[in-house]
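User: Could you check the structure of this?
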Amino acid sequence: MAKLFEPFTIRDVTFKNRIVQAPMCMYSSHKQDGKVEDWHKVHYASRAVGQVGLIIVEATAVHPQGRISPEDLGIWDDTHVDGLKEVVRLMKQHRAKTGIQLAHAGRKATVEGRNIAPSAIPFSDRYQTPAEMTKKDIETFIQNFKEATVRAKNAGFDVIEIHAAHGYLINSFLSPLTNKRTDGYGGSVKNRYRLLKEIIDVVRTEWAGPLFVRISAHEYTEGGMNAVQYVEMVKWMKEQTVDLIDVSSGGVVLANIDAFPGYQVPFSETIKQQAEIETGTVGLITTGLQAEEILKNNRADLIFLGRELLRNPYWPYTAAKELNVTFDVPKPYGRGWTF
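Assistant: Sure, the predicted structure tokens are below.
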């Protein structure tokens, strides 16, 4: 069988294949209360019908001020749990495993109110200047993640992913481009890592299941982080029992990115080989053959798809035909798929 369609197990959770829907904001909580709406139920369940092995729900805010947009999902209150639980139920009907990405937008939040960041540096002239976080802010932020973890567990998710990429709050602590602090959370690599370390620790007090961290392994700017530099931090994550690194890139500062098919795969390969940890790769992966090459050459363990699954919720069927793989399909769709 093609490696793309082999099962993959982390801890006690087995994904039926190596295909993952990457977390992508839907901007569809139109009441701006962070709650699940009909769109989310249809969107995520459709990808489960499409036979995606693991579906990770979009960046879900641990605090109302941590939303990228006012229409983002939230997990900052117990009232969010029932809606998320229903999305999980719908996905699991079709044997998909379910994940949620816990997030805080930091200085890139576009909701009204006080934005926070490690340092008072705006993302661009179109964003407000954030407040430099106090020790109290940091303590509250860590507690937000702990409470969100409990809610994610109560909603029934199989996987938790910590969003430490794309220039959002945790990522802005990790990067020397955005973290200019002189206290214990800034300066050295270990100090810049400290916030993520404390978040992983507090998440692990409540969560024994698979734990992913998404990173921006290349910042495309002089003086920024790259995949080789991230290896040290990833080794620390591994020691803290993080199971897999979801390797993305960019978003920390405005930068020119030469995006081409598979452009982020070398970052995943570097992290996987040098840190000796399982990785997922993402970025303009569009065909089954392309995904199979990545897996067979040990460049990643999971294939994360974004835009391709927006275009085609049933991409796994397309990839299966391309790779000459057969598998059971939902009975109502049997007449439409000839393998």
